[in-house]
Write a structure and sequence with these properties.
By secondary structure, the protein is mainly beta. The chain has a single domain, classed as Beta Barrel (Porin), CATH 2.40.160. 8% of the residues lie in helices and 66% in strands. It is built from one helix and ten strands. It has an eight-stranded antiparallel β-barrel.
Length: 202
């Protein structure tokens, strides 16, 4: 599956390079504020936000003066935290997920400002949990599906020198929990991301 995702990325960026006269490339990075919506047997579980980071590359393929297609390839740290109190005792736990992401975004731009939206395909690289009751980190990647589909919506502003800022919201559309876990539990990712970007040849 990893080879499949890399092949998609290679095809996307290869197609972009054939339109070099209207294509710009760049790097991006910033902060993620991620969470997970979980439920089991009809009961929802409240989790708290986990702070992480993202970093990667992108291309902007011009369709017209105002419209472009923006494929990206980047890593993001996701997950959530949980805290519970009972009889004066407090316990906490965290779930740390690492993804490689491939969004394909439709983009409208005007005078440096832009808005964008589109689907995103993500591949799970790692999943580790840790509890305050134990110093041991547990590898629980086998409990999650390797592929996630999300929707992305965001906006940004780019200066004439190629530097810019952007923010986006990512909403998971697929259940992360594997069907063979013998439970009706569901989990979906969500994240707010804010960061900076730079165009090499805008």
């Amino acid at each position: 599956m990893r080879n499949f995702l890399l092949a998609i990325a290679a095809i996307t960026f290869s197609a972009a390079s054939t339109q070099a006269q209207t294509t710009s490339f760049g790097l991006k990075g910033g902060m993620t504020a991620s969470n997970m919506k979980m439920s089991s047997s009809g009961i929802s579980i409240s989790l708290t936000t986990k702070i992480g980071f993202y970093a990667g590359a992108f291309a902007e393929v011009g369709v017209s003066e105002k419209f472009a297609i923006q494929p990206e390839l980047f890593y993001s740290s996701m997950g959530a935290k949980m805290k519970a109190s009972d009889s004066g005792m407090t316990a906490s736990a965290s779930e740390n997920l690492g993804y490689i992401n491939l969004p394909i975004l439709a983009k409208y731009k005007s005078d440096g400002f832009s808005i964008f939206a589109g689907p995103q395909l993500s591949y799970l690289l790692s999943a580790k949990s840790k509890s305050s009751q134990s110093s041991e980190t547990v590898n629980d990647k086998d409990e999650y599906k390797p592929i996630e589909v999300s929707g992305v919506l965001g906006a940004g502003y780019t200066l004439s020198n190629g530097f810019g800022i952007d923010a986006r919201y990512q909403l998971g559309l697929t259940n992360l929990i594997k069907d063979n876990q013998g439970t009706d539990a569901t989990a979906k990712n969500s994240a707010f991301m804010v960061g900076v970007h730079y165009f090499f040849n805008r």
